[in-house]
Amino acid sequence: MPLLQKLKFKQKLLSSAVESISTKELLNRLQKLSTELSTADQDKINIASFDAVKDQLFNKKLLKHTNQGVQAFTCCCCADILRLYAPDAPFTAPQLSDIFKTIFLQLRRLEDAENPYYQQQVYLLKSLAEVRSVVLITDLPDAESLVEKVFTTLYELASANFPAKLEPLAADILSEIISESETIPHKVLTLVLNKFLSSETSLSNVSNPGFKFTLAICNMNMDRMARQIAQYFSEIMYENTNLEEISDAQTIAQLGKIHDLSLAIWKHVPELLGSVMGLIDDELLAENEKIRVLATQTLGQIIGHSPSRVNFTTEHSETWLNWMKKTLDVSPRVRAEWVKQAANMVLMVSTSHLPEEIVHGISKCLLDSDERVRFAACRAIARVPSAKLVATVLATDKTLLKTLAQLIRERHPEIRTTVVQVLATLYDDCFPKLFQGDESLDALVGWIPEQILNLIYINDRNINSLVDMAVFEKLLPTDANAETRVARQLQVMRHLEPKAKQAFMAISKRQQQLAGVLTKLVEFSESYNGGAETAEEDNVKTLQQIDTVNRWLCASLPENGNAYETLDLFVRLNNRRWYKLIRLAISSESDYDTIASSMKELFAKMSEIKGKKGGADMLSTFKLLLYRASVVLYNKSNISSVVAMSKARGSFQEAADEWLEQASVTNPSVFKSHVQTLYGLVLTETSVAKSLKTVFRYCKKFLEQPPREVTDKLLSLAISGTPQEAKYSIKILGLHSDTKPLIQDVFDLIYPLNAKSPKFVTHLSSVVQMFLESPLVLVYDAEELTSFLIKNILLTNTRGAVDSDPEWISDEALETGSEPELSAKLYTLRCFVNRLKSLETSSHGSVSGPVFKLFSTLIGSGGEIVNQKTGLPTPKHYQSRLRLAAGLLLLKLAKLPVYSNMVNPQTVNRLTFVVQDQSENVRREFITKAKKYLASEVVSEKFLPLIFFMAHEPNTEVRDDVQTWVRSFSTRCARSKDVKFERTLVRLIHMIAHNQEFADLVSVEATLLKGFSYALEYIAFYINCIATQQNISFLFYLASRVKQYRDNTIDESLYDQAVAPESVLNLYRVAEVAQMVVKELHDAKNWTLETYPARIQLTADLFAPMKSVEETKRIVSTVFVPETAQAELAKLIRHKLQLAPKRKAAPRVKPAVNPGTPKAKSTPVKRTKSPKSKVAKKAKVAINPEDLRKSSRSRNNVSYTVSDSEEEETSDFE
């Protein structure tokens, strides 16, 4: 066995009375001793030889020496002694405690690398880490204090200038202490965990040693730290969830810190939160809303953090399921927080790792019953970039976008605005791929423009402004490249359904009107600020004109801005450059680049206007006005690209043709420099019907006739083209200076007509149009032609009906020539109408009567007028088209005053058959055209009651569309104090009374209530659309007034019979139902029912005055709705009007008198009491007639009704 080495150092370290040691000498001795100890090998020394030195080293004279060097070397020596004596500790517990305290003080000086004993302090740190002697402190009585001391020391060093190369040593020391400690002091645990939070606020953890210490401690003591953290969190949560203190903001803030810490731990050491997840899971079920919100938020952030070493959904599956259930939490705040966190997850996770449940949950929140949750869901989706939204959310659930679109009509304005912005931005971001032909993406987002454009039908100026900004900044933004600009517009157009196309057309049609108004504003501003000497009254007049223009413009601008002040500021600023830029931007002569550059410059200058009244809204106001007034959609710069796409015969061809057609309607002047291009289309293309439409509108607008080669082509098309081509060829020839000779040439070549000719329909189409363009050509052949068409076309079928026949055939299918026989029948009906339109007033009578009778018969017979005994039955789709054509052509004739008077009440009532036709296509087409004619006031208001016969419409979309139209149109009428909708009530009452189904029901006692319910359906539909607090009294007056008149459409002698027949009673029955409806609404709304102060005569075509006062009294005092039916009817009324049920039984409604003469007004009408009636009382409160038309409905509506052109363009088959 080798000889063990003894300690060579024999000098004293402590001064004595005999030997005094100077500090310098002491340092030398300690340094010498330290050098020998540091090189000593534990396995090769005689440990007993070290006892003398060991005993000297533990002396307070050394450990607490005033000289830092003495302390440093002493500590180094002690550290080596501990190493050499290991595993036994050569010191007592108090001695060890003092030694480690001194060592920790030395470690604190490591922050100063320039201090003279830095190397000794580094040596200490290495020794503690390598020898692990530091773990001895965990067994000492004051272990907690020492542990806190070392942790505090090293973490404070970490916050200072701690050398990076020493960080692993310090981390090892702290980890060993945690590993060996029986308990971890609360202060230490807090110190360790707080570094997770500090790491969240730090820009980088690279220079954060304290955070590295914490990570090392947690990673090296995973199980231990997991238990400690769970206990730590549990204690804090328990302390802070006392129900009596839960409202304390500080308590919630404290819990918030714990949750923040949980998230931070999850990001770096997720394994530590195994037990903590159970605690947070419990919070999801807490009674307190704030705690559930906090737990939902934290778990959402934890789940959304990606990537993570731990798969949350599998490792904490129960907590995951409970978190997903928060979409059904009773608290809207919790549900809103859930969807917010779900969006964060979408933002953070990779494309392929988004759980389907998250997407379904977001979709569920979009349909939440609480608007706060819906708004949170919309905002959450808005935060997701379009590319990620498509790649993650929509790739998981394609229906989510449709669900989002359902909120586009949300009543809550912020939700609606957010949805529109999200959809528009998504479409804008996706367009580059749409342009490249991405069909799957097109299917996903191609419908977005239609949804946005359909918002126009709500007719709210705030919504209209929102739509305009979406259209002009997202759907069709400024683009200098003509090809992509045009492709984008055609891409939008080709996805639009007819309703959305009309809205798109309305946007472009208003351009000219608004451009004219803005031009006036600029002119008035120049005049007012011109500087020339003008009379004061001229200035006043100009100011009044400016005020009028400003108010007109403000009526269509959003309510939430200061539009009027902005426009006023514009006038006062008198910026001549602005005037020029506006003129350039709104001129129909400006090309696209000029408009774009003018608006860009103007907007840039207006954005600088601040600090003045109205200046803040200057940019937004004029941006909206110029978008609306500038010719950016149908601009002349776009024509070449559109024509090229039309010729290309690609996916954009149909939309390009439609673009050219619509441009010719809205702004024909754009073709001035491209008219030769249009003529070229007519000459070179094989199918030119749409091009001919465009050429016709241009030629009509500018009174230009085409060149000879085009005229020759027109003559050829009128004979051998398609029916549509023939029609427009004749129309264009009708604009020619030699109209009659040209059309005569065509007529001579095709007449007499040959029904067996393959071009018969084309020839008939030409003849139909000739009646309007050159009627003298047909003056001698009209009768013969009419007889031929009736006998050989209308009353003859060359093919009979079969079971496989469809119910309907579209215009597009007819135009392809698939049903030439049906086309011939429809052109025949148009031929009769055009002949009537061409006749002189004095000669129409003998011709028009049979035509009106024919149309009425077609409607009444369901479209079948062929004799079944001698001919084949008419196919079902033929009948549908014939019924529709008859109804539409009656409306067309009614546009002419001479024929409008011939449309009697019986004919109008017959049109209810079309409104309630068995074919939805017939109903939809007819009511659409009726709305258009009524809105543009080209037909009499006697047709208005037909609209309310849509009350029984089974298609709720069609019914709701009608209801929206009625409310919009009636609101416009209310503004102009036009009471046509209120007057329509008496016409509606009369029409219902003459409805055959109603008459049949009320004629039998058993179905009497059903008959009243049938009438109620129409009245309730009308009242729901029309009634307001301002007109309720007028409506009640009109309903009451009916009982003071006779029915002028039935035989007068019926009123003289002893027992009044049903045809007499029905009018008064319906009138009383109307009174009941108005009265129930008045009662439910608590409106004031006032006596109407004026006397109104009911329309003479329907009503005739009573023969005597006695007759009036008798009718007025009679109740025509039996008492037995009134109570049940009252319940039905409240249901139809969606009114809350009464607490008590509704009293019977009794007839009230709203007299028209002063005498009757002051004297109540009395009647004898009978078992079936009671005396009525009347109201005596006067009202101001001027207030009658001040509608309480929305005043922020702007009309987008498409008005008729001078020559209406319709389907050839109406």
Automatic annotation (TrEMBL):
Main location: nucleus
Gene3D superfamilies, sorted: Leucine-rich Repeat Variant
Basic residues compositional bias, start-end: 1164-1180
UniProt-annotated location(s): Nucleus
UniProt feature, compositional bias: Acidic residues: 1204-1214
InterPro entries assigned to the protein according to its UniProt record, in alphabetical order: ARM-like, ARM-type_fold, Pds5
A molecular function GO annotation: structural molecule activity
One Gene Ontology term, aspect cellular component: chromatin
Region of interest (Disordered), residue spans: 1141-1214
Keyword Cell division in record: yes
GO biological process, alphabetically ordered: cell division; chromatin looping; double-strand break repair; meiotic DNA double-strand break formation; mitotic chromosome condensation; mitotic sister chromatid cohesion; synaptonemal complex assembly
Keywords on record: Cell cycle, Cell division, Mitosis, Nucleus
UniProt name for this protein: Sister chromatid cohesion protein PDS5
Phylogenetic placement of the source organism: Eukaryota, Fungi, Dikarya, Ascomycota, Saccharomycotina
